[in-house]
Amino acid sequence: MSSPFSLILSQGRVADRTDGALVGARLVADALSALLGTDAQVVGTPDASRQDDWSEALPAAATTLTGLRHAVDTAISSGATPLLVTNTCAASLGTLPAVAEHHPDAVVLWIDAHGDFNTPDTTGSGYLGGMVLAAACGLWDSGHGAGVDPRQVVVVGGRDIDPAEAELLAANGVTVLSPGESTPERLRELVAGRPVWIHVDWDVLEPGYIPAAYRVGDGLLPHQIAALFASLPAESVRGVELAEFEAGDAEVPERVSVELVLETVQHLLR
């Protein structure tokens, strides 16, 4: 069958500190490709993980980030809905500026245990993935563009946020919903009929369902994420990013994780 989605797979290292996310992204993209009957456009070439600082990881990822932005720009321009499967949240340094350019009125639903709103001045870990949303909102210059209005960003399921990061989120008008506040009713109220761009980091879930590089307790459950997706009108979705499925976790078989990803996101693919 033909698909309104343009399936894009990130396979270039973007600050990966583990090796499992590139593998996980490929597994999910293969499953989505079979489900949707469409081939994935592959961006980037795999490279080994390492514990580098953002100042090293960012230039190393330049080719992949540029390729992702081009892929999203091309998909939107052709009338397709981008469906991205990425290794790390840092891949959104390339995608979000394209979203802002094409859909300046879109609400960005950042479904993540973390705010990813640190800057070079506030980061304690030096991890590029913890700075991506702040860059997209123009708080620091990644070299890959910005343009997202922070007042149109909703962090869903956020619960592991640094104090300085929390101050930046509040000062810039980002809405942060704890897991308990992340209900379909609240989401519909905040979206208010506007178009949406959806980013999912699987660490938003309670650990044990879909492995992610970071395990943060007291998370949402898969059926709660599915209910959030089901509450959004299909015609409002301008694009979807699925990030940070850490393949190779001994506690959760990869097959089970992939099936759960598909089961959850099918509420967006209806």
Question: How would you describe this protein?
Answer:
Keywords: Hydrolase, Manganese, Metal-binding. It comes from Microbacterium sufflavum. This is Arginase family protein. Belongs to the arginase family. It contains nine helices and eight strands. It is an alpha/beta fold and 270 residues long. It has a single domain, classed as 3-Layer(aba) Sandwich (Arginase, Chain A), CATH 3.40.800.10. It has an eight-stranded parallel sheet. Helix 6 links the parallel strand 5 and strand 6. Helix 1 crosses helix 9, helix 3 packs parallel to helix 4 and helix 8 packs parallel to helix 9. The mean pLDDT is 97.
Describe the SSE topology:
Blueprint: E1 5-10, H1 20-36, E2 41-43, H2 54-60, H3 62-77, E3 81-86, H4 92-102, E4 107-111, H5 132-136, E5 153-156, H6 163-171, E6 175-177, H7 184-191, E7 196-201, H8 222-230, E8 237-243, H9 254-265
Helix pairs in contact: 1-9, 3-4, 8-9
Summarize the structure.
35% of the residues lie in helices and 15% in strands. By secondary structure, it is an alpha/beta fold. Helix 1 (20-36) crosses helix 9 (254-265), helix 3 runs parallel beside helix 4 and helix 8 (222-230) packs parallel to helix 9.
